[in-house]
Amino acid sequence: MKVLSLTEPFATLIKNGFKTIETRSWKTNYRGRLYIHASSTKISKDTLKRQKLMSLVNDLSFHFGYIICECELVDCIYMTEEYVENMKKNHPQEYLCGEYKVGRYAWILKNIKPLSNPIKAKGNLNIWNFYNECEIMNLMRNTEYGWLDKNNNKHSVVDETYSDNYILQSPKEIIKNKIGVCWDQVELERYFFKNNDWNIKTIFLVHYDENKCPTHTFLTFEKEKKVYWFEHAWERFRGIHEYKNYEELFSDIKNKFIKFELNNEYESENLMLYEYSKPKYHIGTKEFYSHCELGKKL
Predict the structure, then answer these.
(1) How far apart are CA 278 and CA 276, in angstroms?
(2) Residue spans of beta strands (DSSP E) within the chain
(3) 82 pLDDT exceeds 80?
(4) Are residues 258 and 202 in the same domain?
């Protein structure tokens, strides 16, 4: 879904129908459904001094950092001198709620509908994309399991050549190549979740042994006081899994890893979990292990 961030009180003015035109210094060719996001930025002192404007929202509550309504962006009009004068004379409330100057643009909004459950989100500049967890899972379905080597050759099986030839792709490369192991797919998930303010964590699960040191990476998020395991790469458990807390979540994933990936042959002291940050792209297996091991041990 396309989203536009506004500072308050302007987002709330749209949500409550006092403002149906958003004024911008730049033109957009986008037309269609649009979420309105109230940014987390505090109301500026200059805006607070505008008593007539602020009187429109005296009895309204603000949701800083939330998507609060949806609408349709139906037109984008260049402001001429005549347009500005018409707004000032015939639409005084709209004029009060915007910045009308020759050379700016009026974005016309229709069918404004407040959200009964505002959505927490980080926000961004320009028009940006917001995906909920189900939409992200649908986007991930375009990616098959496999890996790309240093010569851009695709491999569907992790074999003996993987350790020396694998490179970590960027999200845009994964979208283009439509292939990636869990290490890659978590980076694509991180990319799609980047505007969701849901306490996203990326986790590296590894069992150290003298041979392969098998691993799995996965993404978790928090929403409405519950935690979720978002899994696409591990096909057996593909889906969005809900838990009461992280202890329950990590225990479940470790038990599945032990049973299905280690065949119940493991040393408990060699099974480790790390919370890791976004790595550099185009690194190899050794660099990826090292990066994750610098993260927070869980």
Answers:
(1) 7
(2) 2-6, 21-24, 32-38, 66-78, 105-120, 127-129, 147-148, 154-155, 201-207, 215-223, 226-231, 239-243, 271-275, 296-297
(3) yes
(4) yes
The closest of 193, 166, 196 to 182, measured between CA atoms, is 166
Global confidence as pTM: 0.88
Whether 258 and 154 share a structural domain:
yes
Its domain, for residue 58, covers 2-129
Task: Provide the terminal-to-terminal Cα distance of the chain, rounded to the nearest Å.
Answer: 35
Question: Could you tell me if 84 and 155 lie in one domain?
Answer: no
| Lookup: tokens for 45 | 């002192």
Q: Give CA angle at 84 (82, 85), nearest 5°.
A: 65
Same domain for 289 and 157: yes
pLDDT band, residue 210 (cuts 50/70/90) = confident
Together in a domain, 49 and 181: no
Q: Is the dihedral of CA 20, 26, 29, 35 positive or negative?
A: negative
The three-class DSSP label of residue 62 is coil
The b/e string for 227-255 (b: 16+ C-beta within 10 A; e otherwise) is: bbbbbbbbeebeeebebeebeebbeebbe
